[in-house]
Specification:
The complex is a heterodimer.
Chain A: H1 2-35, H2 51-58, H3 60-93, H4 99-107, H5 114-128, H6 134-158, H7 162-170, H8 175-204, H9 207-212, H10 219-228, H11 234-267
Helix pairs in contact in A: 1-11, 2-11, 3-6, 3-8, 6-8, 7-8, 8-11, 10-11
Chain B: H1 2-6, H2 27-54, H3 70-76, H4 82-114, H5 119-127, H6 134-145, H7 150-157, H8 170-194, H9 198-206, H10 211-239, H11 243-247, H12 256-264, H13 270-292, H14 297-302
Classes of the chains: A mainly alpha, B mainly alpha.
Chain lengths: 268, 304
């Protein structure tokens, strides 16, 4: 019995390791291609060079892309977290009549093919007479990201005991005070995770930006256009740089979430 | 959730005289309102617009002014081969779901039972690719399988004849889908497995049940809500996928999403594209609503 379960665990471990290697393999391939010297990728790499990284970092076109992507992701994060915070309370905290339906309707945008959603938004903006730009891309990202952030925060809200709010209220605290000193501190780890998700998902999103950003390009959109026509080693170089930026953010954000959770655990 | 109703903040906060003229909405609805309004404007309204275009005169922009079924007639016309795109998308999505269930189940099991304090880290390693643009990752596979790419070059370097030519085939499209949608299957299954009480399994084992019957009679049925969400999510996403067929599949097959895109861009036939989108939407949302109707989200997400 013991031995067979150890063998099963070994299999699970090996399988997980194998799949993880497969997941990161293409990302590593991209990194290699961006560091090779030649114009066209050949393996094994004969000469290494940082030239393409340098050219990518110096390119004014790339600067504009980064600016667009950061701007979109930043606004998406702030708006998504504010809306989703209340959305998550409605999802998991309060018992109200329409809650079951609300819970399901909220999930629909996540369960929806993004290219179709992007095209639908494009038609809608067209019907409203709005020219697609980075601002409309923000709206498009939000349609998909707000439900995800709501879920992320809601999972934290489920672990929250409403009795704490009740006690504070019995002791004479007003609503704003309760929100600031009881509700928010307990939910901070969820809110931080939600913000991290919002920023990173917006940063990497392609299908929604493709249709709704109009003439304003983002990093994923530019990479795609160059993959289809006009390949340069700047494609894998920028892809790798964008991946590294996301990794740094995830690491930093993860530490903040971890630290917040520990502090919340110590306080509560 | 019984205690939640009792502590709606209003219940205990004294109301200033004259302030309660208008009947207040319940706290839950008030909190849900921003999300609901936003989704009405950003999700429902665009879908209504698509539906309106689907009934407009073909190759026109007469939205809300004409009503015709011509676009749907074009699609079901036997002379038209658009059904092959539908078939490819649905078949690939189905196979993707089956393969992903097989690939993800052991990993989800590991995250829930085997990795212990490492499961947070392992889980993060599986989340991270979600934040890297899909195109970048798919293109990495092109570099891997390309002639003189990583695999081919490596095999030649060690003295073999070189890698197989798998790029730009329908199988490669399938591979790309399995690759991209893995996290969407993995995390719901992990949530589902976390719902299975451990002592129930221990009890069954003490009573002499073997591994297979524990799995079939206890673990699988109790984890089913999570597995269903994963299957639904990956099916819907794979049915609407387009990048895999373009980048890895080299357009050896045309998925339905690409037909829709072509109608909107090159063909400039928005009504036809909308009609195709409406059919896909009906399939996808019908399935989503049917499956979600059977799920208790409080139990799955709140683990109670």
């Amino acid at each position: 019995m013991e031995q067979s379960s150890r063998r099963a665990n070994l299999f699970v471990g090996l399988w997980t390791g194998f799949v993880l290697v497969a997941i990161y393999l293409p990302i590593v391939c991209g990194a290699l291609a961006g560091l090779a010297k030649g114009r066209y990728f050949n393996f094994p790499i004969r000469a290494w060079s940082g030239e393409w990284w340098g050219r990518t970092a110096a390119s004014l076109e790339i600067h504009a892309l980064v600016q667009n992507s950061v701007m979109i992701a930043a606004v998406v994060t702030v708006v998504a977290v504010v809306i989703a915070f209340f959305g998550a309370l409605a999802f998991a905290r309060f018992d109200w009549k329409g809650r079951r339906i609300y819970q399901k309707i909220l999930l629909l945008p996540i369960f929806f093919p993004q290219p179709v959603l992007g095209l639908a938004l494009l038609l809608w903006f067209n019907a409203l007479g709005v020219t697609p730009s980075w601002q409309t891309a923000i709206v498009a990202h939000l349609v998909w990201i707000v439900p995800i952030v709501t879920l992320v925060i809601a999972i934290r809200v489920y672990g929250f005991d409403p009795v704490l709010e009740e006690a504070a209220s019995d002791l004479g605290a007003d609503r704003l005070f309760i929100l600031r000193t009881v509700t928010l501190p307990i939910l901070w780890p969820g809110i931080w995770s939600g913000a991290l998700f919002a920023f990173l998902l917006s940063w990497g999103n392609f299908p929604l930006s493709l249709y709704t950003a109009g003439a304003d390009s983002t990093i994923p959109k530019w990479l795609y256009s160059k993959m289809v026509a006009g390949y340069t080693p700047m494609v894998p170089a920028l892809g790798t740089m964008s991946t590294l930026a996301a990794a740094v953010l995830l690491l930093g954000g993860g530490l903040v979430v971890h630290w917040r959770r520990r502090r919340a655990a110590a306080a509560g | 959730m019984s205690s939640a109703a009792a502590v709606a903040p209003d219940a205990t906060v004294p109301v200033a005289p004259g302030a309660a003229v208008a009947p207040r909405l319940p706290a839950g609805l008030r909190c849900a309102l921003p999300v609901i309004l936003f989704l009405l404007a950003g999700f429902v309204a665009p879908l209504v617009t698509v539906a309106a275009y689907a009934f407009a005169t073909p190759k026109s922009f007469d939205v809300f002014r004409s009503f015709t079924l011509d676009n749907f007639a074009t699609i079901v016309d036997p002379a038209n081969t658009v059904w092959t795109s539908f078939a490819w998308s649905l078949v690939l999505a189905t196979v993707t779901v089956v393969l992903l269930a097989i690939v993800a189940y052991p990993i989800a099991y590991g995250l829930d039972r085997v990795f212990g304090r490492w499961s947070g880290l392992v889980g993060t390693l599986f989340v991270f690719p979600l934040f890297v643009s899909e195109n970048v990752r798919l293109y990495g596979w092109v570099l891997f399988f390309l002639k003189n790419g990583v695999l081919d070059g490596f095999l030649k370097w060690i003295g073999l004849s070189g890698g197989p030519e798998v790029l730009f085939t329908p199988g490669m499209t399938l591979f790309g889908m399995v690759y991209v949608y893995l996290p969407f299957m993995l995390f719901p299954i992990t949530l589902g497995l976390a719902m299975v009480p451990r002592d129930l399994i221990d009890a069954a084992r003490d009573l002499g049940a073997d591994r297979l019957s524990i799995w079939r009679d206890i673990e699988l049925p109790l984890a089913m809500p999570g597995i269903l969400i994963g299957m639904l999510l990956t099916f819907v996403l794979a049915a609407g996928a387009v990048a895999e067929a373009k980048i890895l599949g080299g357009q050896s097959i045309i998925p339905i999403t690409q037909d829709i895109e072509i109608a909107f861009t090159y063909a400039q036939n928005w009504p036809l594209g909308s009609a195709l989108a409406v059919i896909l939407m009906v399939i996808v949302s019908g399935l989503a609503l049917a499956v979600m109707g059977r799920l208790d989200l409080d139990r799955i997400l709140g683990r109670r």
